[in-house]
Amino acid sequence: MRLTRVLYALCAATALGSAACSDSATEPELALAGPEYARVAGTYALSHIVGEEIPWGFQSVGGGGVVFRGGTLTLGGDGRFALHLSQTWVSPASGAPELRTAGRYVYSPGDSSFTVTEDSTNKTARGTVRGRVVVLPVGGAPFTFVRR
Fold this sequence. Notes:
The protein has no helices and 12 strands. The protein is mainly β. The chain has a single domain, classed as Lipocalin (Beta Barrel), CATH 2.40.128. The chain has an 8-stranded antiparallel β-barrel with strand order 3-6-7-8-9-10-11-12. A hairpin with a 5-residue loop joins strand 5 and strand 6 (about 65-75). The chain is elongated, with a radius of gyration of 15 Å.
């Protein structure tokens, strides 16, 4: 597997931490989930990162890095989401073998977009849902998930 050279900062301490995210204090209040959420509710498996199949990794200038092995994104009909990523660290970098986060999401059926807000950090990210495919920026990179 090829390690793609990108900035090590891509792998932030939190799943959604990046310049692509914003502080939810400036975001509108989360809406209650409605019947349109049933169309997107389900579990989606990680299939691609920045257009490349998983496993996918990157390394820092110092030679260490991380390889993403798989993951899931679950969108609930109640407006809750859960993200789980499996990763392997390449020395000298180190970190947890799994990345988990959860929170709420607001779905906008008019433009097939949704905004997730992490419970633990209040960080937000905006993704899209098109049929069985969800694209969500994680650490600034587009992660593609396909409905199981």
